[in-house]
Amino acid sequence: MDVEAVLQKVLQRIRPTDEERAFVEDLMTELKGIAEETIESPGFDVKPYFVGSLAKDTYLAGDHDVDLFLAFPRDTPLEELREKGLELGKAIAEKLDSYEIAYAEHPYVRAEYRGVSVDLVPCYDVESWRDVKTAVDRSILHNGWVLENLNGRNDEVRLLKRFLKGINAYGSEIYIRGFSGYLAEILVIKYGSFLEVLKNADFMLSQKILDPGNWLKREQKIAMKTVSREADADRPLILIDPVDPRRNVAANLSWEKYGILYFKAAQFLENPSEEFFFPRTQKRGNYLSELKRKGTHLVTLVFQAPDMVEDVLLPQLERSARGFEKALSREGFNVLGWNVGHEGSKAFIMLEVDRREREKVRIKPGPEFFTERGWDFYRKNERVWIRGKRLFAEKTVKEDITEVIVELIEKNQISTGKNLRECIKNAEILLDYVPKELKNEAYLFLSREKWNLKGQQ
Amino acid sequence: MDVEAVLQKVLQRIRPTDEERAFVEDLMTELKGIAEETIESPGFDVKPYFVGSLAKDTYLAGDHDVDLFLAFPRDTPLEELREKGLELGKAIAEKLDSYEIAYAEHPYVRAEYRGVSVDLVPCYDVESWRDVKTAVDRSILHNGWVLENLNGRNDEVRLLKRFLKGINAYGSEIYIRGFSGYLAEILVIKYGSFLEVLKNADFMLSQKILDPGNWLKREQKIAMKTVSREADADRPLILIDPVDPRRNVAANLSWEKYGILYFKAAQFLENPSEEFFFPRTQKRGNYLSELKRKGTHLVTLVFQAPDMVEDVLLPQLERSARGFEKALSREGFNVLGWNVGHEGSKAFIMLEVDRREREKVRIKPGPEFFTERGWDFYRKNERVWIRGKRLFAEKTVKEDITEVIVELIEKNQISTGKNLRECIKNAEILLDYVPKELKNEAYLFLSREKWNLKGQQ
Predict the structure, then answer these.
(1) How confident is the model at residue B457 (pLDDT cuts 50, 70, 90)?
(2) Which residues from A are below 8 Å from B295, CB to CB?
(3) N or C, where is chain A less crowded by C-beta within 10 Å?
(4) Dist. CA A393–CA B298, nearest whole Å
């Protein structure tokens, strides 16, 4: 299929219908009314702003979470903003279907209304980057810049966002480190279209510094400081925020996620297909056959995850997996890879290892022979010999990797995510076997299809 | 048995009988006659000296190699000494049963006479350490010092030498690095008896510097230089040669051999037995059972050793074993120990490894993804993913350790003793199997009985 035809087919699926659009507009009008009415009653001096993809009309069909920002005057003390912001959010949310308090730099209210998630976020009413005081303040500026510069290329943004989702490179959350929506919008604005972004995926990296806001002329000193800081941090891309010369929009983008775009863009241009945007349900396969093919073994720890949000849980799972990797390699097992995740409240850590048993006897180095400790060592061990000044002996060791892991956990010799220590102590340790719901995950991990750049088309 | 009774029994076995003594004296008289007669004929100005354990009467029964030194005047040029010394040696040896030329610092003649090996070694006729010009010159001084100081404790020296042989710590050759005969003699002279040497085996180390020649007073500057040099070299013992303040008699003693004396002395004093002096023929056992017990594997390389003396061959075998250890651990095999040696002209290198196969699939790190080489790597491999900036792929690897070794040898990736490279290329590589003549060697190695400090009594 030719590329235009592919894009048209995709657009049919991701462009909101007139009906959806009407629903969204209606919803926003209604929310605005509720907000304004709530703001007026106790005499708050606050302006409600819609920000995010809904406000910019770059949302994907079916994906319309609302971001309603409550902008306080810039002279409001921070403490007051926190307090009154939350109070106001709650007051608005009372009029919606349900809500809970969520936490970022400041607490905010996450409500539900007519089946849509509505974030009510207090911020300052900033007009320029010089006014920015809290992390969320910039959103209003972003919104304005995109609306000003997009010039009707909304569908191109939709294509890019959907493409990034399809190849698993979308989302700037710390445990994803992919492309944010705002970054996608800027790239479309800069290169002109979805296809031009793909064509420039390579060039982008060699160019390295993108400056659509022209800050390197307008605020050279500050912008250069940003460039040099981000270059030191070895980011794949430095895109100076068009609304704030101090910020790299791509600061959270990892080399991995950028690399995925890099290869997938080339693949798509060579061989365009809808599947980049909507990958077929992931490859299925038998993890036991993978183990057999590779001659390796799979250790899976399954445990009740503590009650925490995903962006706290996942990094801790990753840290724990790295802890296991390190401890096991000290113990003579080679960890070829690891994979973490959760199915509902059940978290798992998978470790692919080279063998399930290690040698029964190990050489144990002892102290220098002419010391008190040398005599102890000599007395305690059955076969003792000297190499250089040190005594050596044989040591019988635990054989099975499961036993080794149990011992490591008991002795606290694995560095784990701090909130996971206790649950890992109670983990089930499964060897070359996973429960039904993890079978395909195990396959995707062992086959590396989970990360394979060549997978899925 | 009490210790005196043990020593008496041992002495009966190691003290030469009157008959042997008569034979030795007769032999020496005869050799002296032949030497003097040969020296006179072409008008050599050379004095024959007997040195070594025969001359000092510290030889063990049945062990009576003759060292006949041919001492040239001190003003003989070195070149002349080499030439005439060899010539004279040959002339004497012509009158004996057979001979060959051997090589140390200078060539000398090794002859056979009446079933005894006779070394005819040219040297300078030195009277003091200041005259010493070649390595062998000191022997005459050693001989004199021992004769002067031994005071009838010849049997004590015999006991100590036999003990050191029994525990496998005798011999100052570079591939043994144990106690020399002269060192044993000095220790007996210093501590008074065999038992006192054993009782001081520990103290000796803490005292560290032994100076029976009183050089630290007589030649303080030179002796201190020796002490500081040898302390820097971290010798277990510094025994300033009573005939030469520049030399540490224990310079070649290794920590291992000293350590063996250290533990065996304590064992003997606690539980005296003849077996320390005459260990039962080494423990026998089944190496295959050892492999099973330990869960490890044995790789043995057997090859035709090149024609070289043992003190060149053994260090090269050791270097090669270390080369294998290093290369195999790079390849994912853990080498628990190695053992080298030869049976006649067949040399062997044994390596105990943790497993005979390694995983079939390995993770292969590739180049950074955004490079030409990155694209190559991407194209060449089936499953490719990114970690950081680098590409990774799976790689199928050779499985069997034998194949791995063959490949390592072919690719010259093992650092070996320089004269062994070619023979190792033609080595037979045996896995968990050794030829009949190496069966017990394999057992002693795998069980570590070969080096076990607690073995053999």
Answers:
(1) very low
(2) 357, 359-361, 399
(3) N
(4) 19
Residue A201 lies in a domain: yes
Query: Tokens representing B257?
Result: 């051999």
Q: Which of A262, A336, A370 shows the shortest C-beta gap to B205? A: A370
Terminal-to-terminal C-alpha distance of chain B: 14
Nearest to A384 among B262, B295, B452 (CB): B452
**Which site among A202, A255, A329 would you substitute to test the B interface, given the most B Cβ atoms closer than 10 Å to its Cβ?**
A255
**What number of helices (H) and strands (E) belong to chain A?**
18, 14
Is there a single domain that holds both residue A258 and residue A178? yes
pLDDT given at position B42: 67
Check if the beta carbon of residue A366 is closer than 8 Å to that of residue A377: yes
Residue appearing with tokens 């500050």: A222
Q: How far is Cα of residue B197 from the mean position of the Cα atoms in its chain? A: 22
Nearest CA to CA, how far is B75 from chain A (Å)? Answer: 43
Q: Is the residue at B456 inside a domain?
A: no
What's the domain count of chain A? 4
CATH code: domain of residue B314: 3.30.70.590
- Asked whether residue A169 falls in the same domain as residue A94, the answer is no
Closest CA to A258 of A237, A276, A277, A242: A237
**Do B22 and B114 contact (CB within 8 A), yes or no?**
no
Instruction: With CB atoms and an 8 Å threshold, state whether B256 touches A387.
Output: yes
Instruction: Please tell me the distance in Å from B393's CA to the nearest CA on chain A.
Output: 9
For residue B149, is pLDDT > 90?
yes
Where is pLDDT greater, at B213 or A362? Answer: B213
Residue B187 DSSP SS3: helix
Residues A299 and A321 reside in one and the same domain = yes
How far is CA A416 from each of CA A412, A419, B312, B359, B399, rounded to the nearest angstrom? 9, 8, 53, 27, 33
pLDDT tens digits, B63-106: 888 999 999 999 999 999 999 999 999 999 999 999 998 877 78
What's the pTM?
A: 0.60
Whether A121 and A207 share a structural domain: no
pLDDT at B347 over 60: yes
pLDDT of A32: 94
Q: Which residue has the higher pLDDT, B293 or A223?
A: A223
Measured between alpha carbons, how far is B246 from B227 in angstroms, rounded to an integer? 9
Question: Which of B354, B362, B452 lies closest to A385 in CB terms?
Answer: B452
Q: How far is A305 from chain B (nearest CA, A)?
A: 26
Domain of residue A67, CATH code: 3.30.460.10
Q: CA A20, A24, A26, A29: dihedral to nearest 10 degrees?
A: -170
The beta-carbon neighbor of A255 closest among B294, B332, B386 is B386
Contact yes or no for B390/B371 (Cβ under 8 A):
no
- Cα separation, B340 vs B319, in Å, equals 10
- Cβ pair A388, B255 in contact under 8 A: yes
Decide: helix, strand or coil at residue B390: strand
Looking at the fold, whether A131 and A16 belong to one and the same domain comes out as yes
Work out the average pLDDT over A47-71: 93
The pLDDT confidence band at residue B398, using thresholds 50, 70 and 90, is low
Could you tell me if B372 lies within 8 Å of chain A, comparing CB atoms?
Answer: no
> pLDDT tens across A321-344, in order?
999 999 998 888 889 999 999 888
B186, B161 contact by CB (below 8 A):
no
Would the pLDDT of A238 be above 90? yes
Element (H, E) at B103: strand B98-103
Looking at the structure, do residues A171 and A272 belong to the same domain, yes or no? yes
Burial of B240-251, coded b for 16+ CB within 10 Å and e otherwise, reads bbbbbbbbbbbb
Contact (Cβ atoms closer than 8 angstroms) between residue A429 and residue A273? no
Q: Which domain holds residue B258?
A: 150-276
Of A250, A276, A302, which one is at a domain's C-terminal end? A276
Residue A456 confidence (pLDDT) above 60: no
**Cross-chain residue pair A358–B354, CB shorter than 8 Å:** yes
